[in-house]
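Structure first, sequence second, as always.
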């Protein structure tokens, strides 16, 4: 039984890939894409922070919110998703 027959072919393919002209371009493209993803992450994080602050400001206007938030497992975001009905 032939063992490690794939290793020789894999090394050969790696050697060819290292000499490929697209290697540097792919690296540059990946670096650019990673930078864009990090910028998108930063934007999403700042948007989430603003929304969370707005939710906190609105929740402060609801009676008994501090007591409800004192319940283990209840966060401001979770509480914001619970409909509150008040009499008008």
């Amino acid at each position: 039984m032939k063992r490690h027959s794939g290793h020789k072919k894999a090394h050969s393919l790696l050697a060819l890939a290292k000499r490929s002209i697209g290697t540097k371009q792919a690296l540059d493209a990946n670096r650019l894409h990673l930078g864009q993803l990090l910028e998108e992450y930063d934007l999403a994080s700042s948007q989430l922070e603003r929304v969370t602050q707005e939710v906190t400001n609105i929740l402060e206007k609801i009676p008994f919110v501090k007591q409800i938030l004192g319940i283990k497992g209840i966060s401001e975001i979770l509480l914001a998703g619970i409909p509150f009905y008040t009499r008008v």
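Margin note: The chain is about 70% helix and 0% strand.
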